[in-house]
């Protein structure tokens, strides 16, 4: 009986340690992503849902492309039929004008998967 209790508390300790590590990891990823987002923040505001030169990216993950009201998107993006899934966001980061030729957004190229992960973690936190 006693052994069972010991085993269970070891298990509980392991579980809480794992989730602690995961939380820290997530926070770290967001922080790293915030740094990378400096490449984007000249045009994309995050302090409110306002559009600046680029559309707001708050809630962009799984949003339909070109769906923010009153933002004047390019015809190319409007006709793209894309949804901003993680996979499409990666493709956009890696070469937006390759994914959507004719987009109004200036060329960006973030091909490093780790950097993409950080940026995605940050975008999800917005
Ligand atoms: C020079 C200004 C500029 C920079 C820098 C920039 N963007 Fe954009 N972004 C735009 C514009 C303008 C659009 C609208 C494009 C269109 O209509 O074709 C846009 C559109 C987008 C969209 C589609 C949003 C929607 O509502 O469909 C995403 C996602 C996006 N940008 C992400 C990023 C990320 C991530 C970065 C940084 C790596 C970045 N942008 C850097 C100007 C910029």
From TrEMBL:
<feature type="signal peptide">
    <location>
        <begin position="1"/>
        <end position="21"/>
    </location>
</feature>
<keyword id="KW-0813">Transport</keyword>
<keyword id="KW-0349">Heme</keyword>
<feature type="domain" description="Cytochrome c">
    <location>
        <begin position="28"/>
        <end position="126"/>
    </location>
</feature>
<dbReference type="InterPro" id="IPR036909">
    <property type="entry name" value="Cyt_c-like_dom_sf"/>
</dbReference>
<dbReference type="InterPro" id="IPR009056">
    <property type="entry name" value="Cyt_c-like_dom"/>
</dbReference>
<keyword id="KW-0732">Signal</keyword>
<dbReference type="GO" id="GO:0009055">
    <property type="term" value="F:electron transfer activity"/>
</dbReference>
<dbReference type="GO" id="GO:0020037">
    <property type="term" value="F:heme binding"/>
</dbReference>
<dbReference type="InterPro" id="IPR002327">
    <property type="entry name" value="Cyt_c_1A/1B"/>
</dbReference>
<protein>
    <submittedName>
        <fullName>C-type cytochrome</fullName>
    </submittedName>
</protein>
<keyword id="KW-0479">Metal-binding</keyword>
<dbReference type="GO" id="GO:0046872">
    <property type="term" value="F:metal ion binding"/>
</dbReference>
<keyword id="KW-0249">Electron transport</keyword>
<keyword id="KW-0408">Iron</keyword>
<dbReference type="Pfam" id="PF00034">
    <property type="entry name" value="Cytochrom_C"/>
</dbReference>
């Amino acid at each position: 009986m006693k052994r069972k209790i010991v085993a269970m508390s070891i298990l509980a300790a392991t579980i809480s340690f794992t989730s602690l590590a995961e939380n820290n990891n997530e926070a770290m990823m967001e922080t790293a992503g915030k740094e990378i987002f400096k490449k984007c923040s000249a045009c994309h505001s995050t302090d409110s849902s306002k559009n600046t030169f680029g559309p707001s990216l708050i809630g962009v993950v799984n949003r339909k492309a070109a769906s923010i009201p009153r933002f004047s998107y390019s015809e190319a993006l409007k006709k793209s039929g894309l949804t901003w899934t993680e996979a499409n966001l990666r493709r956009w980061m890696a070469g937006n004008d390759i994914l959507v030729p004719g987009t109004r957004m200036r060329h960006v190229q973030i091909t490093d998967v780790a950097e993409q992960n950080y940026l995605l973690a940050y975008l999800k936190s917005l």
